## 1
Amino acid sequence: MSTGEPRDPANRSDESPRGPGRIEEAAAAVHRALLTCIGPGAGEQIAMAQARLAWQEVTTEAGLSHGPMGSRLVHLVNGIAQVDASEAILANELRLRSEALVWAVNARMTGRPGATLRISRLEITVGRPGSGGDLQSPPATEPPGDSRR
C-alpha cells in the first residue's frame, strides 16, 4: 500500500509488530509495569511464574504431560524445586530425567524478563494430600484450624 510518498523513518507504525526485538521490548515493558503496579515482592512472584511456565513448557515438549497425568512446580527455594506429579509412574520418570529437566528449564528461562531463579535439583512428590491426585483442583477439605463457620 504505497502512496508514493517517501517513508518517514521516525514513523514506525508501518513496521511489522512482530520480531525478536519488539517481543523482547514488550516483555520488558510488561515486566517493568508489573513491578510498579504490584509493589514489593513482585520480583519474586514474576520469577516464580517464569519458572513455572518454563517447567510446563519443558515437560510438555518432553511428552511428560498428557491426559490426566501431569506435574507442576510448587516451590523453588535455594535452588531446590519441589515438583508435584499426579501419578507415581510419572514421578519415577521425572526422577530418571531430573538432570536433563533441570538443565532444560534453566535454559528455557535464560533471557526472559524477571526469570532470576535457577534450579539446582528437584524434589518430586506424588499429588497433594486431600486432592485425590488432581493437581488442578483445590483440596476438598478446609485447612486445619479454619473457624469461618
## 2
Amino acid sequence: MESDEFRDLIDGFFGPRATQVEYSPSTVVWTGTLYESFVFQCGLNGPYGTFGGGIQIAPGEFFTTFLGNNLSLNSDRDSVLSSLRLVDEWCRLRLPDKFLERYEAALADQPSGQPS
C-alpha cells in the first residue's frame, strides 16, 4: 500500500472521530486522538510494509492488544480496516454510553463534523 493510500484509508475510516491528526509520509506513520480520549498511532513498518499500531500509554509506549487480539500485520486494505474496526470497538467499549451519545450528537451538530 502506498503512503497516500494508507493515509486516505485511515482518515476515511476514523473521519471526525480522529482529531489532532499528524501524518508523516516519509515514515508512513499516522497519529490521532480518537474520541478526544485515546492517542492512536499506526503505520507501515519495515521493508515489507507490515501494519502496526497501538494506543499510546506513555511517551514511546503503546498498548497493542485489543480485546485479546493483536492487530493484523498484513497491510492490504481489508486487513488494515479489520484492525481499525478492532481499535474503534475497543475505544467505544472503554467510554461510557453517555459520553458516546453526547459526542455523536456534537458531531452531528457541527457543520465541519468536528466536535466543538
## 3
Amino acid sequence: MSKAEEIAQRWAKWLPPSPHREAVIDFVGRGRASIVQSAPDQPPLLMFEDGGSMELSKVRCGEKEPFYHADRPEERVRADYRATQYSDVCGTIDELKRIFAEEPERVRRKPDYVQSLIDDARHMTGRMYRRQREYNKLAQRLGELHRQMAEVPVQDRAPADEGLDEIEQMLRANPASAETDKDRLDELAEQVRAVANGQEGRLREHKAVALAVYRAYLDIKGARDWTDEESETEEE
C-alpha cells in the first residue's frame, strides 16, 4: 500500500471532497502537514508545519493560496482549538494586504474578519515560536546524551587478541598441550572472556544512550509524519 493510499484509507471518513481531498493527501504524504486527532469522536485537525491548523473536513485548496478554511471566521474559533483561515502566515498576510489595497472599507464594514486574520497570524507565529523552543530543548538534550556517549570507555581488546593468539600458537605447536597445559589454556580463555564481558557492558551503555536519543526524536516528532520524502521539502 502506498503512502497516499494509507492516508486515504485511514482518514476516509474525515477527508474533504475532491479535489481538495487529493491535495491534502499529497501535502501530508510529502511531510508538509500532519493529521492529528485528539479523540475518536473528535474531528481530526490538519496541522501545518508553517503554523496553521484546520479541521480536516473543512480544508480547501485554491490556486493562489494552497489551503484555506471553508468556514467563516466566527465558526473557526472554538474552545478546544483554533482553526486558521490560511495554512501559513504568508497566506494570512497576503489576504490582509489584499484587503488594504482592494477593500480598505472592509476594515470598517467587517472588522471581525480583519481581526481574525491578525489573530491567526499571532497564533501561528506563537505556535512556531513554541516549536523553536522545543527544538532548543532537543538540542540541549542531545548535547547531554552526546556527553554521556562520549564518556563510555572503549573496552581494550588487546588482552583478548593476545590470549587468542597464544592459544592458537600453543595448539598449533603442540596439540597435546590441550591436556598438558590445560591450566594455562583455561587462564587464557578466561582472559578472552573478561574482555568480552567488558565489551558487552560498554555496548549496553552505548545502547541505552542511543535509545534515549531515539526517544528524544519521537518526542520532538510527535504525531508528525516524518519520512524520507520530506527531505525534498521545506521543514519547520
